[in-house]
From TrEMBL:
GO cellular component terms given for this protein: cytosol
Pfam families found in the cross-reference section: Ribonuc_L-PSP (PF01042)
Family classification: Belongs to the RutC family.
GO MF annotation, one: deaminase activity
InterPro entries, sorted: RidA (IPR006056), RidA_CS (IPR019897), RutC-like_sf (IPR035959), YjgF/YER057c/UK114 (IPR006175)
This protein's name: Endoribonuclease L-PSP
Amino acid sequence: MKKVIATSKAPGAIGPYSQAIIVGTMIYTSGQLPIDPETGEMVAHEIALQTRTCLKNVKAILEEAGSNMDKIVKTTVFLSDMANFVKMNEVYKEFFSGDFPARSAFQVARLPKDALVEIEVVAIL
């Protein structure tokens, strides 16, 4: 059985999908864009700020589900330009303590709303 997770502390879906789904003891988030949940607007077009906002949104969703960043087992990072990888990585590591989760990172042709980065995660409860 699956359970839908939704919080106003992260941006609402911009399409027909949920912020996250719990199945058993696993949480699967949708890709989080660098949208400020209070304004509904994309943050400045700068990779560090956008990465930080994506991860804050992930954190809010996990907390709503009863989990946290330390329980992430896998992340997927989508970048509009792999030249932003180093700066994204600098911010990314600020959100984790101890062992880092497994991760994939890809350059994609384009992201929704022309974001520089989008991040999705899989975590345990």
